[in-house]
Amino acid sequence: MPTDVLLQLNTYPLREGLKPTYGTAGFRSVADLLPSTVFRCGALMALRAGALRQVTGIVITASHNPEQDNGVKLVDPSGNMLDSQWENMADALAQATTAEQALREVELIKQTWAVGTGGTVMVAHDTRSSALDLCKAAAAGISAVGGTPEPALLLTTPQLHWMVARRNCCLPFSEVDYFQTLLGAFEQLRSSHCPSAKAQALVVDAANGVGAPKLAEAAGRLSDLGLNINVINSGTSGALNAGCGADFVQKEQARPAGFESIPSGMRCASMDGDADRLVYFVMRKSGHAQLFDGDRIAVLAATLLDRILHERPGADASVRMGIVQTAYANGSSTRYVRSRLTECEVVMTPTGVKHLHHAAAAFDIGIYYEANGHGTILFKPSFLKTLTEGSGGWRTEMGLLSQVMNQAVGDALSGLLLVEYALCRLGWGLAQWTDLYTDLPSRQLKVAVPNRAAFTTTDAETRLMTPRGLQCQVEAEVAKVSQGRCFVRPSGTEDVVRVYAEAENQIAADQLAKAVASLVSEMA
Ligand SMILES: CC(=O)N[C@H]1[C@@H](OP(=O)(O)O)O[C@H](CO)[C@@H](O)[C@@H]1O
Ligand SMILES: [Mg+2]
């Protein structure tokens, strides 16, 4: 009923001059500017559900960004992020300046995908105060094209991805099932392989986000297993992601808010606002947070899996294992995998889980983590099938790991369970994990520019194509520095250009980043 849709589209007009873009992980902006985009994303995901005759999902979240921001992440029936072919349609629909033009985009999608009416869309949101209004906008968009919006639930991003994936495979998909699957598998792993593991304490910074109540739900069961979790920044007083959370700890390598009384040397972890990122850290007396980032989690995971594969009888049957990284991975981690974990391939992709996930899915066991702690381990379904065909300790162990690790998307809870299991299975403390390799000092800077679209890249974002001439200038700066590496790329989630630099020592890394940031500013 086009006129109804038109009426509805008119209720959620696009603010003049706004040009929302899909970016690295969906649409993001100041919450007040989002109702139109979220309404249209609702319509899009209902049409996608209708076209594929499966359930899709929407998460209202701006992840690690501040409370006043919000955004929308779009979930495909597989539980992965929206198919890249549909990103252009999402952009065209979100950017249509009038209701009539937006309606034409809706009609175009319907024709192209031969979809008569929308399907069912699951909706989740994080703890932001703007969530409920935006959930209403999403539901209105879903209904406008004849789809069915499910009641919006307070969930972590990875929980909703997991639920959508499971539902489309006709598997139990409630939140209770989620906890039962991850925690039940973790319990079995611990009791089979580390029955006499010592009790451990872990202090978790939940960024004052949705991860706090969810981790609190898991904490009782984990404490029965000897893992005593103390959640800090649980949302009762502090602001979301303000001076805390995985993004803060990774980028600043400093003490997050709320950790003033945590003794140095204590095992700590930090999640982001929607609980799809996780990093570990230990406070040092200097106030510096010693970081165990996504690269180090990936290397720990590869070490664990390598051990399991080597222990199995008839270890000659080949299993293809790979680690997927981005240009932000610390050079030392890449060098370590290439030189020491020789049976593990290394693949580089552009930033964003959508790229890493697909590359990881090509392996029997694909480990992917961004340096910021966003990632998981994928087990290829055909590989998992071979595991269930025979019985054996290592097969069961792999199968259980595939349940601990969210197979749809990166998940902080999966990451936490993985690290805890890997350390106890390998018999390691944090010292052995630290000693694997030494991170090269690095520095990340953001540069505000009038038009970040002027910055385009190639070679998995490691080289600039435009503005012309800038790449040569960057290389000239890099050449001045021992073990220097530096790249520039436009952010896909914030209105900035990012500069990453690495060098032999911190001073040189800082100087390199600063010099290149100045070049970027001048050029912009
Ligand atoms: C350097 C960095 O941390 N970039 C993050 C950030 O993307 P940008 O496109 O760099 O803004 O947010 C993405 C979504 O959470 C995440 O996947 C990515 O790793
Ligand atoms: Mg996040």
TrEMBL record:
Entry binding sites for substrate: 370-372, 489-493, 498
Annotated GO biological process: carbohydrate metabolic process; UDP-N-acetylglucosamine biosynthetic process
GO molecular function, one term: magnesium ion binding
Phosphoacetylglucosamine mutase AMG1 domain residues: 174-279, 293-428
Annotated Alpha-D-phosphohexomutase alpha/beta/alpha domain residues: 52-90
Active-site residues, as the UniProt record annotates them: 63
Cofactor binding summary note: Binds 1 Mg(2+) ion per subunit.
Reactions it catalyzes: N-acetyl-alpha-D-glucosamine 1-phosphate = N-acetyl-D-glucosamine 6-phosphate
EC number: 5.4.2.3
Keyword terms of this UniProt record: Isomerase, Magnesium, Metal-binding, Phosphoprotein
InterPro entries the record matches: A-D-PHexomutase_a/b/a-I, A-D-PHexomutase_a/b/a-I/II/III, A-D-PHexomutase_C, A-D-PHexomutase_C_sf, A-D-PHexomutase_CS, AMG1_II, AMG1_III, PAGM
Metabolic or biological pathway: Nucleotide-sugar biosynthesis; UDP-N-acetyl-alpha-D-glucosamine biosynthesis; N-acetyl-alpha-D-glucosamine 1-phosphate from alpha-D-glucosamine 6-phosphate (route I): step 2/2
Reported cofactor(s): Mg(2+)
Family, as annotated: Belongs to the phosphohexose mutase family.
Role played: Interconverts GlcNAc-6-P and GlcNAc-1-P.
Name this polypeptide is given: Phosphoacetylglucosamine mutase
Organism: Apatococcus fuscideae
